[in-house]
Write a structure and sequence with these properties.
By secondary structure, this protein is α/β, with parallel strands linked by helices. The protein folds into two domains: 153 residues, Up-down Bundle (Butyryl-CoA Dehydrogenase, subunit A, domain 3), CATH 1.20.140; 313 residues, Single-stranded right-handed beta-helix, Pectin lyase-like (Pectate Lyase C-like, 3 Solenoid), CATH 2.160.20.10. It is built from ten helices and 26 strands. The strands form three sheets. It has a 17-stranded parallel sheet that branches. It has a seven-stranded parallel sheet with strand order 5-8-10-12-15-18-21. The chain is globular and about 55 Å long.
């Protein structure tokens, strides 16, 4: 046999041996060998697909309207879970890539696994109040899937930092330092430019390519790696907009948060589920919204009524307003960033399971029903391995004048067992109850939640009368607050304060 042929065969054998060996080695972000992890993920995908087949068999053949709505939503949720788990498999086999994620594999995997877990929970919640064999069959399978997802989450190591702890900036901050790392310089220019090049224009008066936002979104490409920009001209748009999971990198630009308004009035009593009540719902990756208002006018008597619901991973909302009453902004899952937005509501008006940072936002509680208490946040983290949570940083928290002296507004309450919310470096005005935080039901979750406050000021920021729960924390140094910055909680870029002074780990001397 020729020398070169022998050398080729030896090289091929060595490569195959290395591939087999690597399958048994753990990636740096895993606690188990890669092959074991991928096998477990694929087994979970197969189980979910079986449940999806069962749901498909029930779809459209049931006389029970409530059950048929729940089954329809479950079908969509479990299909989304399969897609999220496929991203996990791809990341495991292809390494630390920004093609599907942010480039931080720990955070990406934790995010997508947690997203799949919350999909099962949301599906199950939709079955509440429904009796019968179908519910029992679906619920038992969802419990099995949830158990597998909890196990997978435990196989992924906690997120590591994506960069150095300390960055010293110049006196004049760079534009991109305001935004998360997943935004390209091109997208950062979109956010700062008033002359953004757009793909299509929506105008209610018929002067654009479309008169309805939904029609413009329907024409957008699927799974696009390129930003697709829709300019929505000033006006009030009475429609219910949904950006599904296949529509990646959609950007919607309005003419100002008081000029371009998307308005609806659906509520849970109308559509049976909070999840379905949103005026605007987005699921596709990489969504950006700018200079627009999302509104639900159902009123406080209609219970849960969502203005904006997001599943979109690596999404940014900039100069947007969210107006409603109960459950105004439903940050359902994944990593989300809100900057310089206005958010108003009554009960749990920033809610959901997402890892979300609200930075330099105006957050205002309004008058609801007589005798009703206001809660600004209701975060729904369900597991200690789950890295979700809400961070309210450098914001202005206040109440409307007609409830100023009523002390009925609280910073948050625990929707789920491991609810996690931190308020830091923010101004807290009059009208916030001195206790700060409200129980969900008696002492439920008070020892497992994680709530924190750090360096807040204003008449409502006093800590002397705050709750004494085991899960409540007063941060005394920056190390405790650091995990809740943009760079850590959502693995975003380190941000630079408006003063241009150097910063440390996302915490600024100035807001």
């Amino acid at each position: 046999m020729a020398f070169w042929k022998i050398l080729f065969l030896l090289t091929l054998c060595l490569c195959l041996a290395n591939i087999v060996h690597s399958e048994y080695e753990a990636l740096e972000c895993l606690n188990v060998p890669t092959r074991e992890f991928v096998g477990s993920v694929n087994a979970t995908i197969e189980t979910i697909q079986q449940v999806s087949s069962v749901l498909s068999g029930f779809a459209g053949v049931m006389d029970d309207f409530r059950l048929s709505i729940a089954v329809r939503d479950c079908q969509d949720l479990v299909d989304t879970s399969v897609e999220e788990l496929s991203w996990v498999v791809s990341a495991s086999l292809n390494g630390n890539s920004k093609e599907n994620g942010t480039g931080n594999m720990n955070s990406d995997m934790k995010t997508w696994l947690s997203g799949a877990l919350i999909d099962q929970e949301t599906c199950k919640e939709g079955l509440n109040g429904i009796n019968g064999t179908v519910k029992n069959l679906i619920s038992s399978n969802l419990d099995l899937i949830a158990s597998s997802l909890h196990e997978l989450l435990s196989m992924v190591k906690p997120t590591t930092d994506s960069g150095p702890d300390t960055i010293r900036g110049s006196k004049k901050p760079k534009t991109h330092d305001k935004f998360p790392i997943w935004l390209s310089p091109h997208d950062q220019n979109f956010l700062n430019s008033t002359n953004t090049k757009v793909d299509v224009v929506v105008a209610a008066d018929g002067t654009g390519n479309f008169s309805r936002i939904g029609d413009a979104i329907a024409g957008a490409p699927k799974y696009s790696a390129k930003r697709y920009v829709i300019h929505v001209k000033r006006g009030v748009y009475y429609e219910y907009v949904a950006i599904n999971k296949e529509k990646w990198n959609i950007m919607i630009v309005g003419d100002g948060m008081d000029a371009t308004v998307i308005r609806g009035n659906h509520s849970r009593p109308d559509v049976l589920r909070t999840y379905d009540s949103a005026t605007f719902a987005v699921k596709g990756k990489g969504f950006i919204g700018r200079d627009i208002t999302f509104e639900n006018t159902a009123g406080p008597h209609k219970e849960q009524a969502v203005a904006f619901m997001s599943d979109s991973d690596a999404s940014v909302l900039y100069h947007c307003a969210f107006r409603g009453f109960q459950d105004t902004l439903y940050a359902h899952k994944n990593r989300q960033f809100y900057r310089e937005c206005h958010i108003t509501g009554t009960v749990d008006f920033i809610c959901g399971h997402a890892a979300a940072v609200f930075q330099k936002c105006q957050i205002k509680a309004r008058k609801g029903l007589v005798g009703q208490k206001n809660t600004i946040t209701a975060q729904s983290r369900k597991s200690t391995e789950d890295e979700s949570g809400f961070s309210i940083q450098c914001c202005n928290i206040s109440v409307e004048h007609d409830i100023l002296n009523m002390n009925i507004t609280y910073l948050g309450r625990p929707w789920k067992q491991y609810s996690r919310t931190v308020v830091m470096q923010s101004y807290i005005g009059h009208g916030i109850n001195p206790k700060g935080w409200l129980e969900w039901k008696g002492d439920l979750f008070l020892d497992s939640l994680y709530y924190g406050e750090y360096m807040n000021d204003g008449p409502g920021a006093g800590l002397a009368a705050r709750v004494k729960w085991p899960g409540y924390h007063i941060f005394n140094d920056s190390a405790q607050a650091d995990p809740f910055t943009v760079s850590k909680l959502i693995t975003g870029d380190k941000w630079i304060p408006a003063t241009g002074i150097g910063y440390t780990s996302g915490l600024s001397s100035y807001c």
